[in-house]
Amino acid sequence: MQITNEHTVPVIRSKLFSKYPELKFGMSTRLGGVSEGDFGMNLSFSVGDDEVNVKQNRHRFFYSLGIDIETLAIPRQVHGEVVRVVDRPEIFEQTDALVTNKSDIGLCVSIADCLPIFIFDPATLSLAAVHSGWRGSCARILSKTIALMQKTYGADPPNFICYVGPAAQSCCYEVGEEVAQSFPAEYVIRTGFPKPHLDLQKMNKDILLQHGVQDTNIEVADECTICGRELLHSYRRDGKRSGRMMAVICRMSRPESIHSA
């Protein structure tokens, strides 16, 4: 994990995306915000945090990246499998993944244990942001996202650059037997724990590989949201007092301003 401090706000970065000056990418943590207690750097209006604090937290995070809040495309995530094409900033109801080939639109994902996945295709200049928990992974929302990028933009997965972000990892991601049986055995860990554990990182990386993405073009974060108490929000760990992080990717029309804020 690569963490930088932009204007005193810790931001998780991608080493692969940093090679492309036209891209802005970052993920927030639980640090650097104005919200009280465990909420910290909470970026969600839906968890009981004070609205004024959330607005200030969002301003701090997106300002640190040099991204205008008015340019964001934000999905109202429901742990489903709906993927939408984005051509303008908007809030997208009942949606868990977004794709675009437009510049200056920030595709967002909200995170508190589920897997955030981001894709950039340098050939077609298309982007994707995917929210994939166990339900989304079971429904292969990542495959649906790739298929929509191929259909809409002619994107070719061997060109993709991908980031699989921090989430609940196999060390901590305990599930019931009914959920475990919904997944191929290679992604279910049954030894060393009282109950089955899921490895969604491995499953979704394998999906990328199966579509033809090159292994060297896939970056997988090694941080677990549940283990990372000091740095990351986790709903499974903290329950209703958990805040939400956000990650965003944006292709800038003026890449020379990428470091300005």
Summary of the model, kept short:
With about 260 residues, this protein is an alpha/beta fold. Helices cover about 20% and strands about 25% of the residues.
Could you walk me through the main structural features you see in this protein, from its secondary elements to its overall organization?
The structure is a single chain. The chain has one domain (2-256): CNF1/YfiH-like putative cysteine hydrolases. It contains six helices and 15 strands. It has helices spanning 51-65, 134-138, 141-153, 177-180, 200-210, 235-238, and strands at 2-6, 9-13, 23-27, 72-75, 83-85, 90-92, 97-100, 106-111, 115-121, 126-132, 161-164, 188-189, 197-198, 218-220, 245-251. The chain has a six-stranded mixed β-sheet. A five-stranded mixed β-sheet has the order 3-15-8-4-6, with no helix packed on it. A two-stranded antiparallel sheet has the order 1-2.
